[in-house]
Amino acid sequence: MKATFWGAARTVTGSSHLLELNGHKALLDCGLFQGRRQQTRELNLHFVLNPAEIEEVILSHAHIDHSGNLPALSRYGFSGNIYCTNATRDLVEILLRDSGHIQEKDAEFMTRRNLRKGEPPVEPLYTTNDVEQVLPQLKGIDFGQSRSVMGGAAQTKFHIAGHILGAAFVEISYKAENGADRTLVFSGDLGRREMPLLRDPASPPAGDTLILESTYGNRLHPTREDLLHEFSDNLNRVLGRGGKVIIPAFSVGRTQEIVYALNNLWNEGKLPKVPVFVDSPLSTNATQIFRRHLPLLNDNIQEVLKTDSDPFGFDSLTYVRDVQTSKMINTIKTPVIIISASGMAEAGRVLHHLSNNIEDPRNGVMIVGFQAEHTLGRKLVEKLPEVRILGEMHQVRAEIMTANGMSAHGDQADLRRFAADVAKGGKLKRVFLVHGEETAMQTLASVLREDIPNVEIIVPERGQSFDL
Ligand SMILES: [Zn+2]
Ligand SMILES: [Zn+2]
Asked: What's the confidence (pLDDT) of residue 48?
């Protein structure tokens, strides 16, 4: 088996790793690079590999940095199956349709700008048509079920990763040239234990090779209890002084978690009686998919469901799909909570809410997820005094609150535990660290070298290949 790291190598986004075995080729994930527009467009546009040669894609979960370049792969010749869990398939469907629209809008925007400068029009990375073409290639399978891949030379199996609904880590078993049984484990994005909605990550099997994410390789999360207190204190402080709370949140996962936390505060009588809006058609659709897959959620939710038939809805909450209502929210002068996408404030309706509210010091912006470099969300976290939103500069006078502990990613302790579990049995030879910023990766690499000293820890560069 040969592995080549084509994305999420010394960076967080663009997850994509090529596996080759006996002349068969499969991709682990096919994500979009996100960040600076021009730079990421180049990366997303140019597949270094030939899509027509890929026989299948094994997809860890629905997030766009893992699934978002599938339509382009298909557009340029990939015609095989995309294996993922059933919930991932449902989520990918809505996320890719949304992404197709974004790609078309982005291309229109860049074309208008280019034409003004006398430069040629810009083609979208892919279109909504390309999205419709790739969707039938998605094949949902259950957690724990095996599928034969790479011309029958390998078997793949999904295990619960606890990161978002349907998220899996991947076990791939195959025979080495000498006939020995080998196991490769790909972590995908790893979640955390005792999360509000999701089941705990499963224990991984022993493996010979581990490809491990490292988003929070240099961080430990605060406990959840502190977090919920802080969340509720922050809300009450801002609303209490007459401000609005804007929460940029990923449509899938974070939005439902926030809504569920608010739902519990509501049930306990601890949520001020202010209107709450989930202002995003995508988040609204994603919540429907959570409702469809309730059995995948943890025992807490199963218990809550006995008395509260909808943990994603309460009296003061409104889900907003249409543009009119979204605009109406901006005319409200009294305190209100607005949850809107995108999660890193790069696109979507949250930009309007931010541009309308960020200059008022009574308001608060709550950052509840990982913010990649160069994104607006990251600039807010870094407390820049001025930011550009929708083409205009704004003074940042609203209070910026960060609740990083809400992350859907495990912290350093979770990642170390996962690696130690794969090392059990003593056959683990190499760990490849992916999906992290350089400092997080190097820190994780050095602690892993102490934890599992007989294992080689590698931080691959983009395009580097290894014989496993
Ligand atoms: Zn993810
Ligand atoms: Zn990711």
From this structure: 86
- CATH of span 2-219+408-467: 3.60.15.10
Instruction: Tell me, in angstroms, the distance from the centre of ligand 1 to residue 189's CA.
Output: 5
* CA 61 / ligand 1 centre spacing (Å): 7
On the question of a cis peptide bond just before residue 465, with omega within 30 degrees of 0, the verdict is: no
Q: What does each C-alpha distance from 298 to 93, 292, 415 come to in angstroms?
A: 24, 14, 21
Contact assessment for residue 128 and residue 215, using Cβ atoms and an 8 Å cutoff: no
Distance 355 CA to ligand 1 centre (A): 27
CA proximity to 42, closest of 69, 4, 63: 69
DSSP 361: T
Tens of pLDDT, residues 293-346: 999 999 999 998 899 889 999 999 999 999 999 999 999 999 999 999 989 998
Q: What is each CA distance from 64 to 45, 59, 90, in whole angstroms?
A: 15, 11, 13
Residues 213, 215, 220, 221: what is their CA dihedral angle, to the nearest 10 degrees?
-110
- From the DSSP assignment, how many helices (H) and strands (E) are in the chain? 14, 22
Q: What is the per-residue pLDDT across 229-274, written as a single tens digit (0 to 9) for each?
A: 889 999 999 999 999 999 999 999 899 999 999 999 998 999 999 9
Cβ atoms < 10 Å from Cβ of 166: 29
Domain boundaries, the chain: 2-219+408-467, 224-406
Q: How far is the CA of 120 from the centre of ligand 1 (A)?
A: 35
Give this prediction's pTM: 0.90
> What distance in angstroms lies between residue 59's CA and the mean position of ligand 2's atoms?
12
CB 429 within 8 A of CB 456: yes
DSSP state at residue 436: S
Please report which ligand is nearest the Cα atom of 435. 2
CATH number 3.40.50.10890 given to 224-406: yes
Q: Is 210 helix (H, G, I), strand (E, B) or coil?
A: strand
Cβ neighbour number for residue 152 with a 10 Å cutoff? 9
Question: How far apart are alpha carbons 380 and 404 in whole angstroms?
Answer: 13
Contact between 24 and 49 (Cβ < 8 Å):
no
Counting ligands in written order, the one closest to the CA of 14 is 2
Q: Which residues surround ligand 1, an ion (CB under 5 A)?
A: 63, 189
Return the SS3 of 200. Answer: coil
CA 240 to centroid of ligand 1, rounded, Å: 34
Kind plus residue range of the DSSP H or E element containing 276: strand 276-279
**Secondary element (H or E) of residue 260:** helix 254-267
